[in-house]
């Protein structure tokens, strides 16, 4: 009870706090120093800790650094239960103090440390849910990590329900509603409000809290009349209450919500009055020190001035936010910009204000600061899906920034703005993939004998198992998701411990500029990097370490629709449309080519690396038509492959990171599955593919029952070139990329925590470069999954691979690699060989047949051994031939009818 009382005391007495980043040093009075020294001599750690905590109550602003230095000044660790409880109280206070000074990230760390301390030492402390878990979750809400907030909020709710603590349960239901609302899940948000309301009485003051959030939900749903009715009733109800510390905050929140509703209704005078009422309450009851609330009010007041076309007044309000957060409005110190969604919004709105004033340079500077604050949030997010969501949410802001930079580039001809455009494009491109690549590269440099790494591997395996159960329809999905959330929670804490022990594993938080990135490129490298926005498409050409040209295409939505329709019509739905309407295909392909690559001066036979974005990632550029001179002779069509050698990359930064991968000794492994799933429907072309490659490359060939999941993972760890010829598909609602082996499937998320990774993975399977689209991150494909775990590059299929073409082209590609050609050039020549063969039926010169496979990654030469003439090799070939013979015999003699080859799709 003593711990609970002390925690409650600090929550009720914490006023007059510092700015967001202030941790000024304090001159401790001599009397306090004597007291602390005396307690230290007595070895009285508990009272020593409580004395420091009590002192921080008096003037928390000046004493924050004093409180935070407690650990380094203590003389020993807590031993007894009372000492451990005192230490827990210290950690909780540190979290609270950091939160109120606006340092959300440090506050999160303190609360996390407090929670882990309780778990580690098995402390049974009353109030842990309310004073550690609840504010901890709220911090994640402030950061924008609503998924993590919901997980901790559920833990808090479980505590509250178990202890029959209805006031806490109501508060948590309200906070969960806020999290769901922020994620756009209004149905679950309203369910939480309903569950909270069921625990109240008609006269309960907690109804005020719930109705505030309910009004916010209706406001977000644009049900403004209902929102206005609820919040007006709420304000009347609160005015009848005797104001105190807690009820004043509720009224402050109500006025903010009322202001938001009126602002949306364009009643700006009424909205402004509501915001000023909220500001007055903040100043009266909290001495103006609920900093984030104060900042939010100023931002909303600034937005009103923007809507009224009064940008100078808006900037005045925005500068007050900067002063509130301790950032000098006159000159922003970039190093002091921190991750907070308030700052993200502030800098963005300030950019809009400068835009209204026609001050484009200032507008660009502020929107770049907004992206910087967003990036600093992203660095702190743990869950991959949360990071991808956050990346997607900032893309519109990035497009606006590119638009301003493009305007300045056209106006000033200053090359700096071209580099800024590339900077911003890279900030929106495959950032979580880059994190995964770096993390895996760093981890591979360390010894994995440490038990922490072993525990990490176990947790990752358990998570992958549960994800697999979800996709395969195992037990109750809710139970699996709950179990997996707990595992991810433990994994995140474990990864923090690993990072503390091995600082080199910490992801770099440096944001590379285009200038520094380009200096790392070989001079001969030629990129075209796309950005697909809502209004415009941009293409940045980079050559000889310079941004050579920026192209902008208007009407982006129509262009993206045209590309999507083109891919679905002529590729994803089979070759029929291309065969029956060759001229229509020809014309549409040429139109898309001119839209995306028209105007670039590309030299004959040069190597070009395409970095696609969004739906552009579904295109293979090799088969694009470069002029509008239609000819019926398909073999003579002007395909881009006849002009250039192409490869692809996820981003410049991922390409650079993949380039650092050290080449492994030349070991080839191939897995070949000759049937589809469990129906054993034979695919003769797979056997032919294996047979063709075996004649060219020396290595380990595994067929059917020898090509099981365990064989795949074993080959993955040992081979430097891994060839997989099997059925591939997208599973579940999330379109999870999946490979089918003889016994069971392997999903994308299972490709993690591997000790080594091949230099090249060849995915001679359907749609292995396809997957769910994530705005700002790209296509979540098997190709991307292999890149994330350290593979140097992949050859993968963008649509259902034609078996005969895959067999010939991959075999030819290996032959070319053995001749010393780099991977992309080897694939380029293999495709050209297909086109230059004059013996084919006319339709097989169409891109559907020969252009499905693309190379994604850093281009290099790989070590392979040519096939020998040993008896063992003859044995392998004999086995493959026998397999093919019996398969064909089965088809001819048993079924008694001809069966055309079945696609691997």
From TrEMBL:
SUPFAM superfamilies: TPR-like (SSF48452). The keyword Repeat does not apply. Residues 1-22 form the signal peptide. Keywords: Membrane, Signal, Transmembrane, Transmembrane helix. InterPro entries: CHAT_dom, TPR-like_helical_dom_sf, TPR_rpt. The chain crosses the membrane at residues 874-892. Residues 590-857 form the CHAT domain. This is CHAT domain-containing protein.
């Amino acid at each position: 009870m003593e711990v609970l009382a002390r925690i409650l005391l600090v929550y009720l007495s914490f006023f007059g706090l510092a700015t967001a980043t202030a941790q000024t040093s304090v001159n401790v009075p001599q009397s306090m120093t004597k007291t602390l020294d005396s307690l230290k001599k007595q070895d009285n750690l508990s009272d020593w800790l409580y004395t420091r905590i009590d002192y921080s109550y008096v003037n928390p602003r000046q004493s924050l650094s004093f409180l935070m230095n407690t650990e380094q000044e203590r003389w020993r660790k807590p031993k007894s239960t009372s000492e451990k409880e005192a230490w827990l109280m210290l950690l909780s206070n540190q979290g609270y103090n950091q939160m109120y000074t606006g340092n959300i990230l440090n506050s999160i760390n303190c609360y996390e440390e407090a929670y882990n301390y309780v778990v580690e030492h098995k402390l049974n402390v009353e109030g842990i849910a309310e004073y550690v878990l609840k504010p901890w979750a709220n911090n994640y809400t402030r950061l924008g990590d609503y998924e993590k907030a919901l997980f901790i909020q559920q833990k808090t709710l479980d505590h509250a329900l178990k202890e029959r603590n209805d006031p806490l349960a109501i508060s948590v239901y309200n906070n969960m509603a806020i999290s769901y609302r922020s994620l756009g899940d209004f149905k679950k948000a309203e369910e939480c409000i309903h569950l909270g309301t069921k625990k109240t009485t008609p006269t309960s003051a907690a109804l005020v809290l719930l109705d505030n959030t309910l009004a916010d939900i209706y406001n977000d749903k644009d049900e403004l009349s209902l929102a206005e009715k609820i919040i007006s009733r709420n304000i009347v109800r609160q005015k009848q209450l005797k104001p105190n510390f807690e009820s004043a905050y509720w009224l402050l929140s109500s006025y903010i919500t009322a202001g938001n509703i009126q602002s949306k209704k364009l009643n700006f005078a009424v909205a402004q009055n509501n915001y000023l009422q909220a500001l007055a309450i903040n100043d009266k009851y909290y001495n103006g020190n609920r900093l984030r609330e104060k900042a939010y009010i100023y931002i909303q007041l600034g937005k009103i001035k923007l809507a009224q076309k009064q940008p100078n007044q808006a900037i005045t309000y925005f500068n007050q936010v900067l002063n509130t957060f301790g950032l000098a409005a006159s000159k922003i110190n970039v190093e002091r910009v921190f991750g907070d969604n308030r700052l993200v919004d502030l800098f963005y709105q300030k950019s809009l204000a400068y835009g209204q004033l026609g001050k484009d340079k200032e507008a660009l500077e502020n929107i770049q600061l907004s992206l910087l604050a967003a990036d600093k949030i992203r660095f702190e997010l743990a869950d991959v899906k949360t990071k991808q969501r956050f990346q997607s949410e900032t893309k519109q802001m990035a497009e606006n920034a590119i638009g301003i930079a493009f305007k300045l580039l056209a106006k000033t001809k200053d090359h700096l703005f071209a580099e800024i455009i590339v900077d911003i494009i890279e900030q929106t491109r495959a950032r979580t993939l880059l994190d995964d690549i770096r993390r895996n590269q760093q981890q591979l440099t360390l010894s994995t004998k440490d038990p922490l790494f072993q525990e990490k591997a176990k947790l990752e395996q358990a998570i992958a198992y549960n994800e697999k159960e979800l996709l395969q329809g195992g037990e109750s999905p809710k139970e699996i998701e709950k179990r997996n959330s707990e595992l991810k929670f433990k994994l995140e804490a474990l990864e923090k411990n690993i990072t503390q022990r091995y600082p080199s594993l910490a992801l770099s938080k440096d944001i590379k500029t285009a200038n520094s990135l380009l200096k790392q490129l070989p001079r001969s490298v030629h990129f075209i990097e796309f950005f697909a926005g809502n209004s415009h498409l941009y293409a940045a050409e980079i050559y000889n370490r310079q941004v050579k040209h920026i192209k902008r295409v208007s009407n982006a939505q129509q262009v993206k629709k045209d590309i999507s329709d083109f891919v679905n019509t002529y590729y994803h739905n089979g070759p029929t449309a291309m065969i029956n309407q060759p001229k229509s295909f020809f014309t549409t392909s040429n139109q898309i080519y001119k839209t995306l690559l028209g105007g670039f001066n590309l030299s004959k036979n040069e190597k070009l690396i395409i970095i696609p974005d969004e739906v552009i990632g579904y295109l293979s550029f090799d088969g694009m038509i470069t002029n509008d001179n239609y000819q019926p002779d398909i073999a003579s069509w002007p395909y881009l492959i006849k002009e250039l050698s192409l490869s692809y990359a996820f981003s410049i930064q991922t390409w650079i990171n993949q380039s650092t991968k050290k080449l492994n000794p030349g070991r080839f492994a191939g897995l070949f599955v000759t049937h589809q799933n469990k129906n054993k429907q034979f695919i003769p072309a797979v056997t032919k593919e294996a047979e063709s490659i075996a004649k060219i490359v020396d290595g380990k060939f595994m067929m059917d029952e020898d090509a099981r999941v365990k064989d795949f993972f074993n080959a993955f760890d040992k081979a430097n070139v891994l060839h997989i010829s099997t059925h591939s598909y997208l599973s579940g609602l999330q379109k999870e990329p999946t490979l089918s082996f003889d016994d069971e499937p392997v999903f994308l998320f299972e490709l993690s925590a591997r000790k080594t990774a091949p230099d090249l993975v060849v995915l001679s399977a359907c749609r292995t470069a396809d997957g769910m689209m994530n705005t700002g991150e790209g296509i979540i494909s098997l190709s991307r999954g292999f890149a994330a775990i350290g593979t140097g590059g992949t050859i993968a299929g963008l649509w259902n691979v034609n078996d005969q073409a895959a067999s010939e082209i991959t075999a030819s590609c290996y032959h070319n690699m053995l001749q010393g050609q780099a991977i992309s050039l080897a694939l380029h020549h293999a495709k050209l060989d297909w086109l230059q063969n004059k013996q084919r039926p006319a339709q097989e010169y169409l891109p559907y047949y020969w252009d499905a496979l693309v190379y994604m990654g850093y281009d290099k030469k790989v070590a392979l051994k040519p096939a020998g003439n040993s008896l063992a090799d003859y044995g392998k070939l004999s086995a493959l031939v026998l397999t093919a013979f019996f398969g064909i015999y089965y088809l001819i003699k048993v079924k008694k009818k001809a069966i055309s080859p079945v696609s691997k799709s």
